[in-house]
Specification:
This protein is an alpha+beta fold and about 400 residues long. It is built from twelve helices and twelve strands. It has one domain: q2cbj1_9rhob like domain (Jelly Rolls). It binds 2-oxoglutaric acid.
């Protein structure tokens, strides 16, 4: 675990009269998080299936940390791509060129791509955005003088911008986990990067994801899918996502009441997700989770990519949050799920010695996905077809 004592002090100082309470909350949260059993290497049983202890812990807590899952080589590829993408970000929110005068990353796309926010703000909390799921506004610390007007917070549709993200998308162990949770015909959800720059990164207020199935008579804990969260620089109690373990089983949670009962936004039973670089988290979308403004000295970038059960999206009208709402028929889902086979081919080229994942729907229909630069270029705007539920 990284030593973040300087960040904890810096973070507490932003909270004025609440400084001591914030320091205590972070230290206690760290301790509770590290005492949980839901972390360790990805393990398989003798039949090559995900170890039942992992599935049991994921079911109990709603998240699991696969330690050291990405090799140093893979994490380095991601880092290099993140730097290249950063280099091509618009000079400021709304600009169409980067600092070198080139067309900025995403400037010619029509889908949901680069999002910005005021430094250390909580742009979603207490608003109607994303159908009002971020029910409370978190404390917005005052950024240091000299902070920019806006800071990048999220890059949607990341697979069209980064070959390394495509390769990680097809990690065989992660796809095996997707299969274990969602069945062999699992399908994509959406992909993106959460960007929390040191001293600037915006908050994502407490929320549960998922919009569609809360009142479904067949509701269960996995019906809104999950996200994998790959950590490139690690994730700490100051810059990371905090979760309320077990809440993925509780249906829609009244977060306003939780905060009221707690007397502050610091929910007493929440824990931070603490990771080293190369760790990957599986996080149930129904789990109450969120992240505070990043007032520390460590930047976090999370490589997020989610998967659904096929039955959770088939003939469902989308929530319209990540892409325009349409009804997902079989052809629509198949087109979006092409990304899985394409990514598997990309990964075979990058890591030829690895045993690759076999995606059952492609095997059944004898698909022969291809990966090359032309295919990569064809991914532009692929996220208009995200399966947003
Ligand atoms: O990474 C974060 O700060 C927020 C993550 C989140 O809300 C999500 O993955 O749904």
């Amino acid at each position: 675990m990284q030593d973040i004592s300087r960040s904890i002090e810096a973070c507490a100082a932003y909270y004025g009269d609440d400084a001591a309470a914030v320091r205590r909350y972070i230290l206690d949260g760290q301790k509770r998080a590290m005492a949980l059993p839901n972390r360790g290497p990805l393990r398989f049983d003798k039949n090559g299936n995900i170890h039942s202890d992992i599935l049991a812990d994921y079911a109990t807590y709603g998240f699991y940390i696969f330690e050291d899952l990405l090799s140093a080589e893979e994490t380095n590829d991601l880092k290099n791509d993140l730097e290249a993408m950063r280099d091509n970000f618009p000079t400021e929110m709304g600009a169409t060129t980067d600092a070198k005068g080139r067309p900025a990353l995403g400037a010619d796309t029509t889908g949901f791509t680069l999002q910005w926010a005021k430094p250390l703000s909580d742009p979603l909390g207490g608003t109607a955005i994303a159908n009002g799921r971020h029910q409370v506004k978190l404390f917005e610390p005052k950024p240091d003088t000299g902070a920019p007007q806006a800071t990048p917070v999220y890059l949607g549709g990341s697979l069209q911008f980064s070959k390394a993200c495509v390769v990680t998308y097809a990690h065989p162990g992660l796809l095996k986990m997707a299969e274990a949770v969602n069945g062999p015909d699992f399908v994509p959800f959406h992909e993106g990067l959460f960007i929390k720059d040191a001293g600037l990164g915006a908050a994502v207020s407490w929320h549960q994801d998922g919009d569609t199935h809360w009142d479904n008579p067949d509701f269960d804990e996995n019906i809104h899918g999950f996200n994998f969260m790959g950590q490139v620089y690690g994730s700490t109690a100051v810059n990371g996502v905090w979760v309320l373990p077990g809440t993925h089983k509780q249906g829609r949670v009244d977060i306003v009441k939780l905060v009221k009962d707690a007397g502050s936004e610091r929910l007493p039973d929440a824990v931070p997700i603490i990771c080293n670089p190369g760790d990957v988290v599986i996080n149930n979308r129904q789990l109450v989770h969120g992240s505070f403004a990043n007032t520390g000295f460590e930047t976090r970038v999370t490589v997020n990519f989610g998967f659904h059960r096929h039955s959770s999206v088939l003939n469902i009208h989308g929530a319209g949050i990540h892409a325009e709402a349409v009804t997902f028929d079989e052809a629509f889902i198949k087109e979006r799920a092409r990304l899985i086979g394409i990514a598997i081919e990309a990964r075979k080229q990058r890591f030829p010695e690895e045993t690759s994942y076999e995606y059952a729907p492609d095997i059944e229909t004898n698909e022969q996905p291809v990966w090359n630069d032309t295919v990569f270029a064809s991914l532009k705007n692929y996220n208009l077809n995200d399966l947003s539920i």
